Structures are given as C-alpha cells and as structure tokens.
C-alpha cells in the first residue's frame, strides 16, 4: 500500500506528518502507559516532548501559510488560522485526548488488579 505524503508547494515532504518526527507527538502516551512504574517527573517530561512537537508543527504550518500568501490582504489571518487550527487539533489529537484516555484506562486497570489480586504494584 502506498504511503500518502503531504507536500508543500515546493514539493518538500511535511516533516511533522511524513517522517519519524511525528512519533514525538505520542511521547505522552508512552509516559502515561508507564506512569505507575516511573517517576512522575518523567511522565511530565513526555508531555513536554509532545507539546513541543505540537508547537513546532503549528509554527511550521504558520510558516507554510506565510509562504503561500503573496499579497498583504488576509496574510495575517491566514497565518493565524493555520497556527491556531494546527495547535488546537494536534493538541487535542496528540496530547489531551489520548493522554486522558490512557491515564483513565491504566488507573482503572490498576484499581481492578489491586482489588482482584494481592500482586505488588509493579506486577499489576
């Protein structure tokens, strides 16, 4: 199956969507998955990585919007829409919703395992 790539007007691949860099947006999901086993500071650091990814992607989309817009009318609006749209949607899709979901599933799993077994926390 062919992999779909988004390209800019110059034909360059989208660094934040077509390369390994996109996996940085999932760092907090890994952190949440191991929350019970690693220091809390490490979990928060993974949120920093994911948020940095989302911010960089939003800045890149703003840069691309600026390159596409040649006249002055509406240029600021186009850039603002590109940045805000990317930041909000990527923030929700890469950081907030998956992080919350994984956190609650892991918390429920630990709770149920703690009630159903006498295993120590790292084993649960």
From TrEMBL:
One GO biological process term: mitochondrial fission
Q: Which InterPro entries does the entry link to?
A: Mitochondrial_18_kDa_protein
The record, for Pfam families, names:
MTP18
List the record's Gene Ontology CC terms alphabetically: mitochondrion
Protein family per UniProt: Belongs to the MTFP1 family.
Q: What is this protein called?
A: Mitochondrial fission process protein 1
Q: Which organism is it from?
A: Engystomops pustulosus (Tungara frog)
